[in-house]
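Severity: low
Component: inverse-folding endpoint
Summary: output formatting inconsistent between runs
Steps to reproduce: submit the following structure tokens with default settings.
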């Protein structure tokens, strides 16, 4: 078979090869150009950007929490401190068999199943070179027992940290408050306030009381370490260290010895006591009873223990001094007397005949009774305070009317917060026509006004408000803010707390103030004073006013029988006073829930507090 000859066009093939070579060369040049351009962008144009990203992978910022400021009482006694606590921690990468190691540790230290499970849960989330706590709050014996066996447990060590501690336990809880674990609610608030950056690596935050109110002062400023890490996140070296700034120390007006004494006097009974220095309205003591130990919250209180506090019928979690709302009873009669004198509803010589009951003029409404069923006879303003004559103040309430009464009592601080430096305070209620309309959608009646004259009806107040009003009376209408804080201090200096007074009650003649105070003097030292027996042998002169607040109403002809009344329905006992009478050094207000008459129950406690402060 003949072979077919093939003819090749060498020129065409050469031309085709050259064109392909040129195209390939152009592609190579373009690609090389793109590569060079990209390198230029990386090395020159975007150098800083990628250098920063590279450093962020290599350099880490580790926040260093500040040391919380300490809290002292007025005499320099420490009330809140930072104490070292020890935890047993394991580094997983240094331990061959973690479960076996934990089992061996049980031979020298008690480790519960719950603690082991919590450790293993944390182990899953942590890096193997991290130190993971197995046990917290080791006592001295546990630390010593591990220390002598430490060589047997590579990768296991005892670590020390600082923990908030309150040496006076339940004595100061409602004033100091406490710190506890920072939760999501706290974090959300910090983010809103723009403060979250200062809480990196911080575990605890002030929850209530002084710890909460002065959180910004006590917390300090976070520091940081700039460290170089490898690809696994292990720290290789420290590049920079900015130390944290410790929180400022706080000195309170509180006298812890006086606070402890009053706490013991109340003895767990439901009630509250407030002691104020009328010169500057510094709070010397503020006791709410019963109380609880705040140290339980610092490390995290168990659900069982917290539920027990929540369900306790005596409500220890409530600060009765600032959140407890009670009818103020007859403790407010001196304040109403000042208002009535200024409004000319009465004069210093006005007398009202007390026959044991009072009725609204030209009305068939029920009688409003006096505590003395046969009456007190003809009494003036000082005698009506001395003997706590309800009839006299029913008449004042009727003559002044609710509008004037409410306005005046608001000037004495009722119906609004005192401004004391804790967040846990209520304004209670000073009733008005508008309040009743909004609350009950009903008009105000004259029958609503009359009980206001003796601190009953819709009127509620807190012990701190009554103490504040008493201080205003002592100071002839000057209004000084109630303060727990005395001063702030750091390593270099101390700053006294600067107070701004509210506008005073103006236009009241000084003799009107003196008349009200003299009526209170007669309560303690007059021949008919309701508390004369309590203060009979006192080594000083004082002034006071008792109050008895009903928990439930009585029918017109019904008699109150304390012995046959369930405890939770018994009257509240109140007393407020100041001493010495001529140059007052302290104002004291005490309330006891379900205790009966103020003269018989609260007055003796006030007398003992006076003695504690005044008799050296």
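Observed output (run 2 of 3):
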């Amino acid at each position: 078979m003949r072979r077919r000859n093939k003819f090749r066009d060498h020129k065409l093939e050469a031309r085709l090869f050259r064109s392909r070579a040129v195209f390939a060369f152009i592609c190579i040049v373009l690609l090389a150009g793109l590569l060079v351009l990209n390198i230029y962008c990386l090395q020159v144009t975007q150098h800083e950007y990628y250098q920063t990203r590279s450093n962020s992978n290599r350099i880490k910022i580790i926040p260093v929490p500040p040391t919380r400021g300490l809290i002292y009482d007025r005499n320099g006694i420490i009330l809140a401190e930072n104490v070292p606590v020890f935890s047993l921690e394991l580094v997983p990468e240094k331990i061959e068999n973690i479960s076996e190691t934990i089992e061996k540790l049980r031979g020298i230290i008690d480790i519960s199943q719950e603690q082991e499970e919590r450790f293993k849960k944390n182990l899953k989330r942590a890096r193997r070179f991290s130190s993971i706590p197995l046990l917290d709050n080791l006592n001295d014996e546990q630390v010593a027992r591990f220390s002598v066996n430490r060589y047997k447990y590579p990768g296991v060590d005892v670590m020390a940290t600082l923990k908030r501690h309150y040496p006076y336990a339940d004595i100061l809880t409602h004033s100091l408050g406490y710190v506890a674990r920072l939760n999501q609610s706290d974090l959300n608030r910090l983010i809103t306030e723009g403060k979250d950056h200062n809480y990196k690596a911080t575990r605890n935050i002030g929850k209530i009381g002084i710890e909460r109110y002065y959180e910004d002062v006590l917390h300090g400023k976070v520091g940081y370490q700039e460290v170089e890490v490898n690809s696994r996140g292990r720290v290789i070296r420290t590049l920079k260290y900015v130390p944290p700034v410790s929180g400022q120390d706080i000195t309170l007006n509180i006298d812890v010895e006086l606070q402890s004494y009053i706490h013991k006097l109340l003895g767990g009974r439901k009630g509250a006591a407030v002691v104020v220095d009328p010169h500057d309205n510094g709070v010397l003591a503020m006791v709410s009873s019963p109380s609880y130990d705040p140290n339980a919250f610092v490390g995290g209180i168990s659900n069982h223990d917290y539920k027990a506090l929540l369900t306790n019928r005596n409500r220890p979690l409530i600060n009765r001094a600032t959140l407890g709302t009670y009818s103020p009873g007859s403790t407010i009669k001196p304040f109403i007397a000042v208002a009535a004198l200024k409004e000319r509803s009465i004069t210093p010589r006005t007398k009202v005949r007390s026959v044991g009951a009072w009725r609204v003029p030209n009305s068939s409404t029920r009688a409003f009774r006096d505590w003395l069923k046969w009456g007190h006879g003809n009494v003036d303003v000082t005698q009506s305070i001395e003997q706590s004559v309800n009839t006299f103040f029913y008449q004042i309430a009727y003559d002044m009317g609710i509008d004037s009464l409410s306005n005046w009592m608001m000037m004495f601080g009722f119906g609004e917060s005192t401004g004391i430096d804790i967040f846990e305070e209520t304004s209670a209620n000073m009733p008005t026509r508008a309040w009743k309309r909004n609350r009950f959608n009903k008009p105000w009646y004259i029958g609503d006004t009359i009980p206001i004259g003796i601190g009953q009806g819709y009127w509620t107040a807190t012990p701190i408000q009554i103490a504040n009003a008493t201080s205003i009376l002592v100071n002839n209408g000057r209004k000084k803010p109630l303060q727990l804080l005395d001063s702030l201090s750091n390593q270099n200096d101390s700053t006294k707390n600067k107070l701004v007074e509210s506008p005073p009650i103006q236009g009241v003649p000084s003799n009107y103030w003196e008349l009200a105070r003299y009526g209170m003097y007669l309560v303690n030292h007059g021949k008919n004073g309701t508390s004369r027996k309590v203060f009979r042998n006192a080594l000083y002169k004082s002034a006071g006013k008792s109050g008895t607040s009903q928990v439930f109403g009585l029918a017109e002809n019904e008699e109150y029988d304390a012995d046959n009344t369930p405890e939770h329905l018994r009257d509240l006992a109140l007393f407020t006073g100041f001493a010495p009478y001529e140059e007052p050094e302290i104002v004291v207000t005490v309330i006891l829930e379900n205790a009966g008459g103020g003269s018989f129950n609260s007055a003796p406690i006030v007398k003992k507090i006076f003695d504690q402060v005044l008799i050296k």
